[in-house]
Design a protein that fits this description.
The complex is a heterodimer of chains A (115) and B (114). Chain A is mostly beta strands and 115 residues long. Helix content of chain A is 0%, strand content 52%. In chain A, the strands form two sheets. In chain A, strands 2, 4, 5, 6, 9, 10 and 11 form a seven-stranded mixed sheet that branches. A four-stranded antiparallel sheet of chain A has the order 1-3-8-7, with no helix packed on it. Classes of the chains: A mainly beta (115), B mainly beta (114).
């Protein structure tokens, strides 16, 4: 079946550094990719929609300069957390879709810890 | 705006018994998809079942079935013959047709009692 690969699965870094998370669709071309953030014991919160070749669309309240999204190809989207601080620590999940009548496929998530 | 409501933060069921998780949603659209996702402690999102709004027949996947009431905007999940591996957080989700965005409910944590 379709697989979405997310890398890294866990990253720990110092405050002030930038962290890049990759989301790849391995066996299909994703028309759109989505980035979510999940706090402990809470639901997934949509951060932004990533479309290949165009600017990402951010949800209200999400800082676009803090969370940079690049969708360079139909199989790769990246989320860069710039100048990360402890409050950015969270679980980030991506998903990829092939269109409305197809289910989205989720990556396994990235646990980000900022010291 | 669409909303998805799961009114049961936690539920418990005895192994081998049947449990129903509730979900209601609000939308003015007529065509959409509904999903139930399972998130075990590994935090991987696993698609359990999906329902197309224009289909009246309730979806089933082995031990999992839904009761889709479009007029009432209700989409409950029934798990039959509950197994220990069913223990997880379950999210009800609505997929918007115009932009493929998925809106999640707050989730129901399901405990399976041996």
């Amino acid at each position: 079946g379709a697989v979405v690969s997310q890398h890294p699965s866990w990253v720990i870094c110092k405050s002030g550094t930038s962290v890049k998370i990759e989301c790849r669709s391995l066996d299909f071309q994703a028309t759109t990719m989505f980035w979510y953030r999940q706090f402990p014991k809470q639901s997934l919160m949509l951060m932004a929609t990533s479309n290949e070749g165009s600017k990402a669309t951010y949800e209200q309240g999400v800082e676009k300069d803090k969370f940079l999204i690049n969708h360079a190809s139909l199989t790769l989207s990246t989320l860069t957390v710039t100048s990360a601080h402890p409050e950015d620590s969270s679980f980030y999940i991506c998903s990829a879709g092939r269109g409305y009548n197809q289910p989205q496929h989720f990556g396994d998530g990235t646990r980000l810890s900022i010291l | 705006a669409q909303t998805v409501t799961q009114s049961q933060p936690e539920m418990s069921v005895q192994e081998a018994e049947t449990v129903t998780l509730s979900c209601t949603y609000d939308t003015s659209e007529s065509d959409y998809y509904l999903f139930w996702y399972k998130q075990p402690p590994s935090r991987q999102m696993i698609l359990v079942i999906r329902q197309e709004a224009y289909k009246q027949q309730n979806a089933t996947e082995n031990r999992f079935s839904v009761n889709f009431q479009k007029a009432a905007k209700s989409f409950s999940l029934k798990i039959s013959d509950s197994q220990l591996g069913d223990a997880a957080m379950y999210f009800c989700a609505y997929k918007r047709p115009r932009d493929d965005k998925i809106i999640f409910g707050k989730g129901t944590r399901l405990h399976i009692l041996p």
